[in-house]
Amino acid sequence: ILTEAELPLKLCAYSPCFRAERMASGQENKGLIRLHQFHKVELVKIIEPDHSYTELKKMLADARNILYLLKIPHRVIELCCSELGFTAAKTYDIEVWLPISQKWLEISSCSNCEDFQSRRAKIRVKKENQKYYPHTLNGSALAVDRLIIALCEYYYNEEENKLIIPEILQQYF
Fold first, then answer.
1. H-helix or E-strand containing 65?
2. One of 78, 106, 119, 120 is an active-site residue; which one?
3. How would DSSP label each residue in 109-121?
4. String of b and e for 139-149 (b: at least 16 CB within 10 Å)?
5. Please, which domain of life does this record's source organism belong to (predicted)?
6. pLDDT per residue rounded down to tens, the chain (173 residues)
């Protein structure tokens, strides 16, 4: 049980993930595109219901900002209801353009689950003498392995056979 003073609750975690299915053979599933084990930075917000859709747009902007800083072209797709995950009320996917591969690759997904997850997890917020279920938002900042693919496509110098470190990242190397 949280208090309203604790909201919005913004959490971030590094997340090693595992796919249940094995990689299928074929051109679409080679290399880093669909690994059995992959890594991402997970974003979670627990929000007052009145602010959840505004916070969803902020979460989407945070994920996109990384791509702006890295100068990687991308697009945002709002998923239709038949594409939504079981828990989501609204989801945006971010896809990066891979110029060498000539295709779009999903790199992030940001969802508003409204009160679905908080009801299942029994997360409540106490306001005066009443309790309510907050809204939860989930997003991946960026899928690390897929970001590496995009960085290789945009920053590989074929003539010198080396990967150029993007300007924004040079201070870390």
1. helix 52-70
2. 106
3. EEEE-TTHHHHHH
4. bbbbbbbbbeb
5. Eukaryota
6. 999 999 999 999 988 877 665 545 444 555 555 556 777 889 999 999 999 999 999 999 999 999 999 999 999 999 999 998 889 999 999 999 998 889 899 999 999 999 999 999 999 999 988 999 999 999 988 888 889 889 999 999 989 999 999 999 999 98
Q: What is the pTM of this model?
A: 0.86
109 is catalytic: yes
- Catalytic site residue from 19, 75, 119, 120: 19
Answer yes or no: 158 catalytic.
no
Beta strands in the chain (DSSP E): 2-3, 9-18, 37-47, 74-78, 90-98, 103-112, 125-127, 130-132, 135-143, 156-157, 162-163
> Which of 114, 70, 115, 121 is closest to 90 using CA atoms?
114
Tell me the pairing of strands 2-3 and 125-127.
parallel
Whole-number Å distance between alpha carbons of 37 and 35: 5
Answer whether 42's CB lies under 8 Å from 15's CB: yes
Whether residue 34 lies in the annotated active site: yes
Q: Is 19 a catalytic residue?
A: yes
As given in the structure block, the two tokens for residue 39 are 């890594």
